[in-house]
Amino acid sequence: MTNYFKYPSVDTEYEKWGLSVLNAGYARIRAAEEYPVKNHPSHHYFKWDDWRTLQEYQVVYILNGQGLFESASVPLTEVKAGTAIVLFPGERHRYKPDSATGWDEYWVGFRGTMIDNLLQGGFLSRETPCFSVGFKPEILDLFNTIIDNIRHERAGYQPLVSGAVMHLIGQCHSAVKQEPAPRRASEIVQRARFIFRANIDKPYTPEQVAQDLNLSYSSFRKMFKSQTGLSPGQYFLQLKINRASKLLNDGTLLVKEISASLNFESAYYFSRVFKEKTGMTPTEYRDMYNTSASCE
Question: Which CATH number covers residue 275?
């Protein structure tokens, strides 16, 4: 995970949409590393001892590690991996990772009458800002969608990210309502799938996932395959092929750039694997997509 954040400009035309995304990003804070990362604007940067008050809502999602959260409405609370924290405008707060573990975080900041209505309707509360949502791939996908859109700021992207934020809040609300809790094997596999998605662009291996989950690789592989029908390595490779297909459809990156972004050892190897999985080379796949799109 390479740290990234952006504070895009907001078109006043879309303020009337009812929800505007103001910033988003992700960060990996290693054990004993300074927090938060530097270079944020002064109105967002804070130190633990100084607290912070924002003029916007935020959702902060903790993937790995643990830490502490405190606000004007909530006493000092332990935060574990799989927790989403909602921050409220005008609400003094502070949070930080445990120096012994660090943490991985995604966040998005936003404002608008849609969210004000959720607060007024009791669906969000300053007194209960922490949601134990677990490791749902859908949540990570929504964060990645938001970040990808604000990174490129394509024409008309604001309604797309506004919808993704509403979907994100809906996923968080749904996750805490669902019962019963998943059994241990299902929860482990769900978290493993989540870790794979979060590290799709890294030289990450199934053996490292097993290590992160404190399992032997043989036990992890058997458990994962029984739940998904695929070995961990096959699953991770299929994730990369799916992401590559989306990037090819997008059309902004060269084949060799897509190969590098997904950490394939070479463009040749990427093309060979892509053809094995799809029946087409990356170039053939892109040409087919462009042809079908032009016929619509």
Answer: 1.10.10.60
Residues 188 and 147 in one domain: no
Q: Are residues 78 and 115 in the same domain?
A: yes
* Rounded CA separation 165/110 (Å): 8
Same domain, 153 and 188: no
DSSP string over 201-247: TS---HHHHHHHTT--HHHHHHHHHHHHSS-HHHHHHHHHHHHHHHH
User: What is the C-alpha to C-alpha distance for residues 281 and 260, in angstroms, rounded to an integer?
Assistant: 16
Residues 11 and 105 in one domain: yes
Q: Are residues 165 and 29 in the same domain?
A: yes
Which residue segment(s) compose the domain that 98 sits in?
4-177
- List Cβ neighbours of 174 (8 Å cut-off, separation of 6 or more): none
Do the beta carbons of residue 66 and residue 79 sit within 8 Å? yes
Backbone angles phi, psi at 61, to 5 degrees: -115, 125
Q: Which residue has the tokens 């790995």?
A: 64
Model pTM? 0.69
- Strand ranges, E, within the chain: 4-6, 20-29, 57-71, 77-80, 83-87, 93-97, 103-111, 130-132
Indicate the SS3 state at residue 9.
coil
- Per-residue pLDDT tens listing for the chain (296 residues): 678 999 998 877 778 889 999 999 999 999 999 998 888 888 899 999 999 999 999 999 999 999 999 999 999 999 999 999 999 999 999 999 999 999 999 999 999 999 999 999 989 999 999 998 888 889 999 999 999 999 998 888 999 999 999 999 999 888 777 644 445 788 889 889 989 998 998 888 999 999 888 888 988 998 999 889 999 999 999 999 999 999 998 878 899 999 999 999 999 999 999 999 999 999 999 888 776 555 55
